[in-house]
């Protein structure tokens, strides 16, 4: 599904999956942090979704 979507839709889908994970770590900044992370390459974002440790290392 993700691979078949246009790039902007891919970012939207990834953002929707990342936001709740980030909100648990930084509830007040989740929107801003998610937006900043969406500047990163999609393959790295997918890795962060699969690896909580990778996401924590990036977000802090």
From TrEMBL:
One of its GO terms (cellular component) is nucleus. Residues 1-60 form the PABC domain. GO terms for molecular function: RNA binding; ubiquitin-ubiquitin ligase activity. InterPro entries: PABP-dom, PABP_HYD_C. Gene3D superfamilies: c-terminal domain of poly(a) binding protein (1.10.1900.10). GO terms for biological process: positive regulation of canonical Wnt signaling pathway; protein polyubiquitination. It holds the Pfam family MLLE. Belongs to the polyadenylate-binding protein type-1 family. This is PABC domain-containing protein. The lineage of its organism: Eukaryota, Metazoa, Spiralia, Lophotrochozoa, Mollusca.
